[in-house]
Amino acid sequence: MKPADFATAPQKLVLEEYFAGKTRAWGLFEDRFGTVRRQFTVDITGDWNGERLVLDEAFLYNDGETDRRVWTIRKTADGQYLGEAGDVVGQAAGEAAGNALNWAYTMDLKVGDGTLRVRFNDWMFLQPDNVIINRARVTKWGVEIGQVTLFFRKGD
């Protein structure tokens, strides 16, 4: 699958437009056996200044744990993005076309008291009513260890 496969979709996902302002997400992490291990909500504040999009993400997990991630994303060309965050190794790269965005990056993921270096391959799909469905495959050494599913809803 590649972003160009979705170029003719009726909706157009423009990352910096969608995430400017307030957005809320609901998600879960399933291990490679399909067992749901964590559920969470994310409140996101996005600031687009014409050159960069800053996403301040506040996570609340179902066990009461909280976390925060701040993304800085630059649009490098039409539909092309590079991003950085504190727990991302190097840069994330994204490509959008039509209603889809493919976002790939390596992350030092918090697991218990340590971290695990994993690779994320995210696919976001803009749906009617300002909803984005996001599916991410999480791999370690090329082997899938789990999936993250998120639903984003743009604030009113």
Automatic annotation (TrEMBL):
Domain of life according to the entry: Bacteria
The UniProt entry, under InterPro entries, shows: DUF3833 (IPR024409)
Looking up Pfam families in the UniProt record yields: DUF3833
Per its record, how is this protein called by name?
DUF3833 domain-containing protein
Q: Which organism is it from?
A: Novispirillum itersonii (Aquaspirillum itersonii)
